[in-house]
Design goal:
elongated, 0% strand, mainly alpha, Secretory carrier-associated membrane protein, membrane, 65% helix, single chain, transport, coiled coil
Length: 359
């Protein structure tokens, strides 16, 4: 049949055997089956894996760079109003926070504490400034006497500045022991007075109590507390030896004082004797004897602890001798006396040599 019998307006795919839907479904069944096999409802948020995985996407002919170059410059930096906060603004905010507190006594206490801390810091800064201006020489601050007192402080003492942190506790303990020692000596004076009033034979004990109070108060500070302070301040073996030598005798004195033998002080023996005559005076004397006993126990414990620290620092008697010799030679009076003695010996030697030549 000729081509003129065909319909020109008919679908050209009508007579195509491959355009049948059943044939197309059978042809695409392999792809759909692969897509169903790759589907996992529990992986990657219920998304199927694309069929064209591993095939790079087509590159576009017109690509743009990843980092865009700005066409305009950034605006110049200017300090905002929020950044312009001075101390007055901070103080105003702090006052506002204090005013918002319900209890006025709370922020008053906080303000007083802050002022006290600021005063302490200012005082420390002033002391350091004065020390630097004086060439490292520190101004004496102990004992803390008032300004109108005719006698000024004799020593400089500051645990936080002079003593290393690991030794501040034991030095402060020694200082408190010295203060407790002075208090017990004063109570011993009162107890000796009560003993003298009760028993006329206690006159010697009362007289010695005045001597102990007047003499032992400054001597104990100078002879065993200050050497220990200077020993830990400068790691001085010589001052350690001075402390050990004097403080051991101080311990022996504490033992004698707590016993109360030979009318030396009011102690256990004199206190027990006085209880039968006067209960009040005897009880007061026994309390003083107990305080002397506490001093003896604390002193021997302190002596052992300081000796352990001393042995751990590697100090020795030879080092103490060397420090003593250097200290003696640095003394202006000793050097002046040595130079005068050497000059006198030289003059006498020259005079003797001249007289021998003359004859």
């Amino acid at each position: 049949m000729s081509d003129f019998d065909s319909n020109p307006f008919a679908d050209p795919r009508a007579n195509n055997p491959f355009s049948d839907p059943s044939v197309q479904q059978a042809a695409g069944g392999g792809q759909r089956q692969g897509a169903l096999d790759d589907f996992n409802p529990f992986a990657d948020g219920n998304q199927t894996r694309p069929l064209n995985q591993g095939v790079p996407p087509p590159r576009s002919s017109q690509t743009q760079p990843a980092i865009m170059t700005p066409s305009d410059d950034p605006p110049p930096y200017s300090q905002s109003g929020a950044q312009k906060v001075d101390t007055s603004e901070l103080q105003r905010r702090q006052e506002w926070q204090f005013s918002m507190m319900p209890d006025s006594s709370v922020h008053e206490d906080i303000g007083e504490e802050l002022e006290r801390k600021a005063a302490e810091l200012q005082k420390k800064e002033q002391e350091l400034k004065n020390a630097s201006m004086a060439g490292g020489k520190k101004e004496n601050n102990w004992p803390p006497l008032p300004k109108f007192f005719p006698i000024g402080p004799c020593f400089y003492q500051d645990f936080n500045v002079d003593i290393p942190l690991e030794f501040q506790r034991i030095v402060k303990l020694t200082y408190y022991l010295w203060g407790f020692h002075v208090l017990v000596l004063f109570l011993n004076f009162l107890g000796s007075l009560a003993y003298f009033i009760t028993n006329s034979s206690g006159g010697a004990t009362f007289g010695l109590s005045i001597l102990w109070l007047v003499l032992f108060t400054p001597c104990s500070f100078i002879c065993w507390y200050r050497p220990l302070y200077k020993a830990f301040r400068s790691d001085s073996s010589f001052n350690f030896f001075v402390f050990f030598f004097i403080f051991f005798f101080q311990f022996c004195v504490y033992v004698v004082q707590c016993l109360g033998i030979t009318d030396f002080t009011v102690g256990w023996i004199n206190g027990l004797k006085t209880v039968g005559e006067s209960a009040g005076a005897g009880a007061f004397m026994l309390i003083i004897a107990f305080l002397f006993t506490i001093e003896a126990v604390v002193s021997i414990v302190l002596l052992i602890k300081v000796h352990r620290i001393y042995r751990s620092t590697g100090a020795s008697f030879q080092k103490a001798q060397a420090e003593f010799a250097n200290g003696v030679m640095r003394n202006e009076a000793v050097r002046g006396a040595a130079s005068d003695a050497a000059a006198g010996a030289a003059r006498s030697a020259v005079a003797g040599y001249g007289s021998e030549n003359r004859y």
